[in-house]
Amino acid sequence: MTPIVHREAALTLADAEICVLASRWPRDLDFTFSAPRHLFAMYFSSISGVEGRYLEQDETHFAPTGSIFFRPAGRRLNIRGPGRSPVRAVHCLLDQRRLDVLGAGGLQWSPQALQAALDIRAPNLRPHFLRLASEAASPGIAAPLVADAVLVLMVSELLDYLSPAPRSGPGPGDVAARVLRRVRDRIYDGEAPPPTVTELADLCGLSERHLLRLFRRAQGVSLIDFVREARLERAMELLSATDLPLKAVAHRLGFSSHASFTAAFTREAGVAPTVFRRDRRRPYVVRALRDDRPAKA
To answer: For the chain, what percent of residues have pLDDT higher than 70?
Structure first.
């Protein structure tokens, strides 16, 4: 018997999907699962006593499965151990293209690598998973780019964990002023849809990983926070300086609906966009009314 899974929240990207799941496991686990997409997962609580093995490897024995693990696409993972109910998890489903772009497409899945990926103990991964869960449950003003950037950092951590040998890449001096200017110009382009991390990296001729790291070093702030602030400023500008309906504002900012834009704006600004627009315009309306009053004799 396989777990009964309920999807609490999800965030879909171009070549990845983040899901927050609640599972009700049977009393005793003994099942096999496989999927066409790579799975990078974290359970919120410990799953001690659970073991896994890959059926494609004849000599692979059961090994402990940790709260964070990676299962390559197409591999049949057999899980056994004591069940518990309920269990919550964050699942990141990644297309092969996503791993190729991030430089992880050439990973060699030897029996040792598969076993190591069943229990990943990189300390920085848990905060990243929690950030993704938060964005999926309550998307912010720049949720797709935030999630995309966090995935870049997570896959980098995975590569460092499975392949600890240092990888070469551009150093701090390679971030020229023109590169930063290109990023800023693209982010502040009010007519174009919101950029992805891949687009910005291609624009600069850098890998996604190095763009994120070097942008922080050069600007003193992460690219994620920079884009989030820029989008919030753009939203405030459109609400304050134009009469565009919320649906049009949401479309310009890359949201699928004005409802999702309203939720994201409220989360970031602490006030609904309709209230923000009303409060921003009220001083001008009051001043205009006062100016129209007849002068006292």
So the answer is: 86
